[in-house]
Design a protein that fits this description.
Largest sheet: 5 strands, mixed
Radius of gyration: 12 Å
Number of helices: 3
CATH superfamily: Beta-grasp domain
Structural class: alpha+beta
Strand content: 25-35%
Order of helices and strands: EHEHHEEE
Helix content: 10-25%
């Protein structure tokens, strides 16, 4: 990926997503103009969207259509389960 045409976001994963991604925090490079949905696809977590995955960018919940910018912090919040 061309450095001049990419951005880097910090991904924070919680619950079982941290195990799936190999840790709670990582940096991901994406093409400029990428959305949260593109990031979810890149991380192979599309199935989680159907299970109720919530996403927050810079501390604010958002839709998967939100466009990312360089330096964004993206928190992946799996659905809460319990009994």
């Amino acid at each position: 990926m061309d450095d001049t045409a990419s951005l880097t976001v910090q991904v924070l994963a919680f619950g079982p997503l941290a195990s799936n991604l190999g840790g709670r925090s990582s940096n991901q490079r994406m093409p400029i103009g990428s959305t949260v949905n593109d990031l979810v696809n890149q991380l192979d977590l599309v199935a989680w969207l159907d299970m109720g995955l919530s996403v927050a960018v810079n501390g604010t919940r958002c839709s998967p259509e939100r466009t990312l910018v360089d330096g964004d912090e993206v928190a992946l919040l799996p659905p809460v389960s319990g009994g």
